[in-house]
Amino acid sequence: MGISIVAGPASKDMAKGIADTLAGKDEHARLVDVDLRVFPDGESKIRIADALDGDDVVVVQSTYPPVDTHMMQLFFILSKVSRVASRTVTVVPYLGYARQDREFLAGEIVSIDAIARIISSYAIDALVTFDAHSNLALSYFTVPVHNISAVPLLAEYFKKRLAGEGVEAKDVVSVSPDTGGASRAEALADMLHCNSIALRKSRDRITGAVKIDHEMLSKIRDDMKDKVAIVVDDMISTGSSVAEAVRVLLEYGCSKVYVACTHALMLDGALERIKESGAVDVVATNTIPNKKVSRIVDVAPLAASTVLSILGNSSATGKMDRESNNKSGSRSSRSSRSSISTST
Ligand code: R5P
Predict the structure, then answer these.
(1) Per-residue pLDDT for 333 more than 90?
(2) How far is the CA of 80 from the centre of ligand 1 (A)?
(3) What residue segments make up the domains of the chain, in order of their start?
(4) What band does 344 get if pLDDT is binned at 50, 70 and 90?
(5) Among residues of the chain, what percentage have pLDDT more than 90?
(6) Contact 180 CB / ligand 1 (< 6 Å)
(7) Measured over all CA atoms, what is the biggest interatomic distance in the chain, rounded to whole angstroms?
(8) Cβ-contact 35, 47 below 8 angstroms
(9) Which CATH number is 151-297 given?
């Protein structure tokens, strides 16, 4: 039995990229398309015509907007695949709802908890995702989670680009728009051999307006002068966070500012907002199919090698244990949370 890569409706190109990489390593790897019909009331009807019985199956479906639709389609595919496959690995390049990982305002539902319970209820061997918003979000899953960092790929891209532009590492600074992303900016800085800083951002929980604290920037004004900055974030949604960061960095003396992220949602005029802020351009990965960013970094080969190492390490007999686990209901217990591996 071979490896079947099921291309969810939201991630056809990514699935093909993963299948192409796997095909180079395993002659039995094949891409499986799904048929999608959307009824007038908006319901998705999915058909997987190819037989998957006994295969190792990799389901690829990102959950970018329309998030709920793509999430439901993922559930539908998993409900079928997890019943017939020998082993199931789920690749969700962008994991929607991960930002709703806690009760920010009293009474708010922790939505990623609900999503995690549903995904964990299927007999799957692992969930693979890229730069999930937080480890807290992933902690709600009770299946093994592999959270891959795209930072090394972004670093590789910028190494070449900066060298081509004659920019030396000492003149570069890696910047997180908020303290929550400090370790991401540090990781990028380590790979580029440059300095890093994390700005202090606050967001109005009702209006969504973003503000950056100037006090800290005033103290490091000299370190910013004539530097080439790379603002790096896990995702760009409305672009307000990175646009505000670009604006203050230029105000504090940076000579130019690039923007990089893993997940380019690019909603509500994000690109225009970022361009107006003075950024050179936006570099992003292809976890979300996107024509709105200037340069795309392909993460499919990295996803494929993670899938291969999971399949190489997990035994097919594990499925029986997982199914009996599910029947006894242990999956829904927060006390049975699973392992999270995070790469940098
Ligand atoms: C927030 O903590 C995230 O890391 C991103 O900075 C944020 O979600 C981006 O949203 P937006 O583009 O709307 O500012």
Answers:
(1) no
(2) 34
(3) 3-149+300-342, 151-297
(4) low
(5) 80
(6) yes
(7) 63
(8) yes
(9) 3.40.50.2020
